[in-house]
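Lab intake sheet, docking and co-folding queue.

SAMPLE TYPE: protein with bound small molecule
LIGAND NAME: magnesium ion
LIGAND FORMAT: SMILES
REQUESTED OUTPUT: full 3D complex as structure tokens
PRIORITY: normal
SUBMITTED BY: R.K., bench team

The fields below were copied directly from the construct record.
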Amino acid sequence: MPPDTRSTVGAARIARVEILCLRYPLAKPMESVMGRLDSRPALLIRLEDTDGAEGWGEIWCNFPQPGAEYRARLAAASLERALSIVDPGAPGDAFRLLRQRLHMLSLQSGEGGPADQIASGVDIALHDLASRKAGVPMATFLGGAPRALDGYASGIDCRLAPEMITQARGNGYRAFKLRVGFDRATDTGILANAAGLIEPGEVLMIDANQSWTVSDIDGLKDHINDAPLTWVEEPLPVDRPDTEWARVAAVLHAPIAGGENMRSADAFDNAISGNVFDVIQPDVCKWGGLSGCLDIAKRVIGAGKRYCPHYLGGGLGLVASAHLLSAAGGDGLLEIDVNDNALRELLAGPLLPLRNGRAVTPDAPGLGVTPDRAVIREFQVLHFDFAPIDDSAET
Ligand SMILES: [Mg+2]
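RESULT FIELD (auto-filled):
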């Protein structure tokens, strides 16, 4: 190993990395416009420093279905050397530094997304490690405090809306988001009956998952505008031109939400400063980690808009999302998928189930949750365990 030339002599370094890819098989496949899933993955990362302290993070890996194992292999291969540039004592710069380090690789492969997602997971793990060492909850480390959050039941297939909403209501939820966009007739039917799905004091949102065109929206607009919707999420693909987004914003009365597929500071800047998006939803495991998303969340709230973290994955990333929303402030709702996924409940610690209708952010140091090794062993499909190589003297 080359000699340590960094100036932080004596400071702790990352000594060990584990990448853990888990899969929970579904008894009944889950369908959306993104495709059909017959299992639910979670990709975890554990970092241990030279003082023996640990930190956990989660890397977004939902789609395509085989993508979790690929990201696990990519993380193991790329982080072996890349981690030498991060300082566990200064996690606030981790996403930016790692993303810089992985930039050429992502250009060469034409795949920026997996690099963003891996850097996000590392950023979360470093924040967990640093806040555990500081003895404070992650939300406090980020400048706020853990709090009880209003959650909403997400991922509801509109074709199963009555039964899924009834079940979620029984579990304490008062806000529900339907996945639409399967076909015009189904969308029309569900929107026409939307008011009957909720009770007084409850709220309803829809998510088209980027599946509509401007012409679809023109055809559906009366039904959308007649429905009691708190927001309409991703009505268009994220890469449609500004003119199309402006048209959709002019036609629809409900607030427009988006952000889970925005992948640059510029894209978020445009969403914050523009007139299209009222609700902005970065995903802490997908782009930015805590360091990138906290800055965006604060600017969203500062601009008078609503920050509602996107999240669909295992329980660890959900807990990170809760700390981030706790720290950012505002009246945003915490997104909680209510489809079958044991890796959510088993890894979310005390955050789930809801208590008195609210998700209570853990107040123990760091995330306040440490994954149970028995759970990991039960669902693990890939495991990498290595010491990072310090190549700082070579670069
Ligand atoms: Mg969405």
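REVIEWER NOTE: DSSP finds 14 helices and 13 strands in the chain.
SIGN-OFF: pending second check by T.M.
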